[in-house]
Amino acid sequence: MAKMDDYQLSSIVSGEITDALNHFDSEYTQERLRALDFYLGEPLGNEVEGRSAVVATEVADTVEAIMPNLMRVFTANDKYVRFAPRTAEDQEAAEQASDYVNYIITQRNDGYKLLHTFFKDALLFRMGVIKFFYETKEEVDEEEYSGLSEDELVMLMNDPNVEIVEQSETVMESIYDDESGETMPLRSEYDLTVRVTREEGEIKVINVPPEEFLVNRRATSLEDAHFMAHRTTLTVSDLVAMGTTAMRSKSTLARTS
Fold it and tell me: Distance between CA atoms of 198 and 195, rounded to whole angstroms?
């Protein structure tokens, strides 16, 4: 099988995006706008002057009546996820995995808000989407060191994440060489200013607005979908900020198979 190059991959992804956009814009955009108008009680556009312009709010009433009971089922406590052990030996590992995932959802991400938005999107727009991914970012700091030995200096210089900005040497001990007539340092100490680049990462869980989620038109579920994408609009300042902070998302924005 011939290896696919970047141009071919880009063409396939572009085609899938265009096809999905045409499908979603024609099939769902108007339905979502109509559902939102019903929920907000907006005028229907067929009002007659001099007659009642009251708009019924059954959509909003129904959604808001369902939400409390739905949230109560899934958020009665902070244990959103539970891993079941397969054997007795897996009991401790399953408990640790459960505690860790629940910590990620409740403490590192706003789990209650995520579920609330997820359910409400599903009730109102017939589609709720949650996306999880591992996000990394680089942080650059300047640090100062004083009185370092030569061995400590070598250790810093060998660190690929450290860049020396300024360096000064102070000779602490020396000896005079009669043959050369020069003073030879025996022990020195170094003062440094370095730039340290650290990479940090965390698991992120976010809601994806239904209008930003794309899937191939013939997909009946996520399991049989051969293309999924999260399409969003960014401002120039957003793109510049992402570039300057060197943020690199490990999530898959578009998947083809």
Answer: 10
| pLDDT per residue as tens, the chain (257 positions) | 567 788 888 898 889 888 888 877 777 788 888 888 889 888 877 767 777 777 788 899 999 999 999 999 988 887 888 999 999 999 999 999 999 999 999 999 999 999 999 999 999 998 899 999 998 888 888 999 888 888 888 888 898 888 989 988 887 666 666 666 676 666 778 898 999 988 888 999 999 999 899 888 888 888 888 898 898 888 888 777 766 544 444 333 444 34
Tokens at 31, concatenated? 């339905």
How do beta strands 248-249 and 129-148 pair? Answer: antiparallel
- Which pTM value belongs to this model? 0.69
User: Pairing state of beta strands 213-215 and 129-148?
Assistant: unpaired
CA 239 to mean position of chain CA atoms: 15
What residue spans define the domains of the chain?
Answer: 28-40+53-127, 138-199
Which residue is it, tokens 């810093």?
Answer: 156
Is residue 45 exposed (0-12), middle (13-18) or buried (19+ Cβ within 10 Å)? exposed
Written as one letter, the residue type at 208 is: V
